[in-house]
Amino acid sequence: MAYIYNKYVSHIDPVFILLPEEIEKVTGWSKDRITRALRYLRQENLITSHTENDIMVVPSGVTPDGVRTIENESKSKSIFGFSFKINPLTGNIEFGFSWEKK
User: Fold this and answer.
1) Which CATH number is 32's domain given?
2) 17 within some domain
3) Residue 100 covered by a domain
4) Predicted local distance difference test score (pLDDT) of residue 54
5) Does residue 89 fall inside a structural domain?
6) Can you give the pLDDT at residue 58?
7) Do 68 and 75 meet the contact criterion of CB atoms below 8 Å apart?
8) Which of 41, 72, 86, 91 could form an SS bridge with 47, CB 3.0 to 4.6 Å?
9) Which domain holds residue 60?
10) How many domains does the chain have?
11) Does residue 99 lie in a domain region?
12) pLDDT digit of tens for each residue in the chain (102 aa)?
């Protein structure tokens, strides 16, 4: 969700296409894990998405509920088990870790 949120706030157009291959490259997660996570985010009404072949979920934006969840500490803790740190200058979430594989 944090990666999708950062893409959302960094785009001029709030609607975008984020291919699962990009998420896989950044996170190192398997396609199955990404698909399950994206389905969960969609079912919780946190992201907008397109479905291809009734299997692959392609994120295309963040819903108002998704933005409120990310930006509200207690709400994000209740859904994800932790809260996000948003940089007030960039609006992006700052990670205390790197998704990049070493």
Assistant:
1) 1.10.10.10
2) yes
3) no
4) 61
5) yes
6) 83
7) yes
8) 41
9) 2-94
10) 1
11) no
12) 887 877 787 776 667 788 878 888 888 888 888 888 888 999 999 998 887 666 677 888 889 999 888 888 888 888 877 777 777 777 777 765 445 544
Write 16-23 long-range contacts (CB < 8 A, 24+).
Answer: 16/59, 16/60, 16/61, 17/50, 17/58, 17/59, 17/60, 18/58, 18/59, 18/60, 19/58, 20/56, 20/57, 20/58
Three-state SS annotation for the chain:
CHHHHHHHHHCCCCCCCCCHHHHHHHHCCCHHHHHHHHHHHHHCCCEEEEEECCCEEEEEEECHHHHHHHHCHHHHHHHHCCCCEECCCCCCEECCCCCCCC
